């Protein structure tokens, strides 16, 4: 259930950011507010969501997170048809949890440069490993179709 609230919270937050008016010459990367989860995610199976199996490479990377992995999350802003992307950086891992630092900015490019100082907040969001796996699948009722699409990892 907590996953549903986190994803719904993320969707609402990203939706409100997308609805804010912006100057005509807005750059590709715009500011987005920090995300604060309301509760823990629920499993997709528990709520009867039928979806395709998640990408096994992504699932393996989520199960074995490394410091500074960058999670790329796609979503569709309310009223829009194009995808936008939001980013999280792994700041700490334990055998049962992973801490993610949300980006301060969203982008229309999943390959956007996230290396600038201050790109990520310093307010970690803690996910259990099971909750992190649920990022791979769109949650029921998520009108922004939020899901993890890529994990960037330094080789």
From TrEMBL:
Keyword Signal: yes
Species lineage: Bacteria, Pseudomonadati, Bacteroidota, Cytophagia, Cytophagales
UniProt keyword terms in alphabetical order: Signal
Signal peptide limits: 1-26
Protein name according to UniProt: Lipoprotein
Domain of life: Bacteria
């Amino acid at each position: 259930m907590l996953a549903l609230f986190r994803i719904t919270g993320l969707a609402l937050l990203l939706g409100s950011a997308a609805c804010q008016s912006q100057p005509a010459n807005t750059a590709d990367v715009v500011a987005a507010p920090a995300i604060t989860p309301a509760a823990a995610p629920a499993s997709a199976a528990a709520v009867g969501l039928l979806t395709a199996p998640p990408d096994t490479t992504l699932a393996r990377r989520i199960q074995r997170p490394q410091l500074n992995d960058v999670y790329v999350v796609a979503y569709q802003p309310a009223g829009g048809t194009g995808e936008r992307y939001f980013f999280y950086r792994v700041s700490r891992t334990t055998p049962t949890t992973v801490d993610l630092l949300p980006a301060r900015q969203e982008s229309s490019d999943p390959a956007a440069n996230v290396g600038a100082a201050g790109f990520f907040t310093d307010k970690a969001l803690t996910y259990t490993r099971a909750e992190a796996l649920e990022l791979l699948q769109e949650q029921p009722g998520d009108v922004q179709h939020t899901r993890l699409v890529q994990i960037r990892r330094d080789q």
